[in-house]
Design goal:
Layout: H1 3-21, H2 27-46
Helix pairs in contact: 1-2
Length: 72
């Protein structure tokens, strides 16, 4: 998984836990929570199918053709 996704997910979890234990009074904590969660979702969606474990021909940048070299 993308490191940015993991970082922003961790920030969201910490901010959410902190916000729940503080009684929900700190608006800045909830802004950090929702902002980090949205950023993690964005990076996950943008990089889906890429990186470790991705097979050839999958993902948003794959084409319909299986040719590797130039056309003959």
């Amino acid at each position: 998984m993308n490191q940015k996704v993991l970082i922003f997910t961790t920030i969201a979890l910490i901010a959410g836990a902190f916000g729940l234990t503080q009684g929900g009074g700190a608006n800045l904590v909830w802004i950090a929570f929702f902002g980090s969660a949205a950023t993690a979702a964005y990076f996950y969606w943008r990089n889906r199918g890429e990186g470790q474990g991705a097979s050839r021909g999958s993902g948003p940048t794959s084409g319909d053709s299986d040719q590797i070299g130039p056309l003959s």
